[in-house]
Amino acid sequence: MRLTARTALGTAAVLAAATLTPVLTAAPAAALGVTGTAPACVKRDVVKHRNYVKVTNTCRETMHLKVVIDWGSDSPCLTYQPGEQWEWTWGRGSYGKVVTC
Known about the structure:
Layout: H1 2-31, E1 36-37, E2 42-47, E3 52-57, E4 63-70, E5 78-80, E6 85-89, E7 94-100
Antiparallel strand pairs: 1-7, 2-3, 3-6, 4-5, 4-7
């Protein structure tokens, strides 16, 4: 009986940890101001071997966007009016994605 009680407590602890893990891992991204991948109306022209991306806002609304560079420095969060474009180059790392911020 004692073994069963320990097993039940262990199972409860594992389930509680599994339930809380998404909340705990989501907090750092929210703290950085990143809200998700930019929508399809944000055009990305990437030339990976030149470490270059041109981002164009073809959306009907103003967008706040940031270029994420894997293993390198991300761009700052910039405000793009409809039709506005911006170029970003980086030295170290590789293109990851464009996110809203």
